[in-house]
Every structure is written in C-alpha cells, then in structure tokens.
Amino acid sequence: MVLVLGLASQAHAQTENKILGLWYNTEKTAQVEITKKESEYIGKIAWLKDPNPDGKPATDRQNSDPKMRQRTLMGLPILKGLKYSGGVWKDGEIYDPKKW
Prior knowledge:
The chain is mostly beta strands. The protein has one helix and five strands.
C-alpha cells in the first residue's frame, strides 16, 4: 500500500484532485479508493484480489493490537489526514495491513 503515498507525491505538480479515484497497491492485490472529505484526503480498501481466503472475509490479522485483528479488510480506512496546500502534499498517515 505504500505506493499510494508515492502516487500522491507524484501528483504534486498536478491539481490536487488528480489523486481521487481507485489506485492499485504495488502487487495489484488490492485497490484503495481515495476521496476527499472537507480539506482532507482519505482512502479505504475498495477491492481485494482475494477477499475471502479460506471462505471467510479477509481480516486485519497481522495488526499489532489483538483487538483489531478481526476487522474486515474490505472498507478498512488506510489513509487519513492527507492535505494539499500551496501545491504541496503534507501530513497524512497510511496504514499497511501487511506490515502491522
């Protein structure tokens, strides 16, 4: 999912709304939908190549917080707080379910 932020920084020279829409992760195993809510850009998992491994919805099983491991990946917010100001992308956090 790190590619999503990379794409955001590439959009620097473009208009801020070029980031809106669906973006694949590097491996093309997931898509993130980026939308704008007020002045922030947010992203959630909108598509998974394998949404139901073992016949059950994919979950956030590698989360460091055991209480969060049962969260379904589909629809999971993974980008928050990204802002565009004066031609520069700033702030923002991205959550990569494969690394936590």
